[in-house]
Design brief:
Helices cover 37% and strands 12% of the residues. It is α+β, with helices and mostly antiparallel strands and 91 residues long. It has a domain of 53 residues: Orthogonal Bundle (Arc Repressor Mutant, subunit A), CATH 1.10.10.10. It has a three-stranded antiparallel β-sheet with strand order 1-3-2. The chain is built from four helices and three strands; from the N terminus they run H-E-H-H-E-E-H.
């Protein structure tokens, strides 16, 4: 086995560990995964949940899951069109 080739080949991302139900939870993301994608803290997502401004989620006991497509839709819904630049002195 050629170890140089193994070291040079890109690492495949590991699937998230969803416990005993990996097939059932395909397409769902944990709060930590969503926080990582948005580059915010888990506590920010918790606060957004309380304020009802964050992405849609499902609670199963203490566990929180986000459906990847719903998360994507929420993100797209927050997209804004660029506003035209204000030209000073003209009205």
């Amino acid at each position: 086995m050629d170890t140089q080739q193994d070291e040079a080949s890109p690492q495949r991302p590991q699937a998230p560990d969803h416990g005993d139900n990996p097939i059932l939870l395909t397409g769902w993301m944990t709060r930590a995964e969503v926080a990582e994608q948005l580059q915010v803290s888990v506590s920010t997502l918790q606060r957004w949940e309380c304020q009802r401004v964050g992405p849609p989620l499902v609670r199963l006991g203490r566990r929180v899951y986000y459906r990847a497509e719903a998360f994507r839709g929420w993100l797209i819904g927050r997209e804004r069109k660029a506003e035209p630049a204000h030209r000073g002195g003209q009205r």
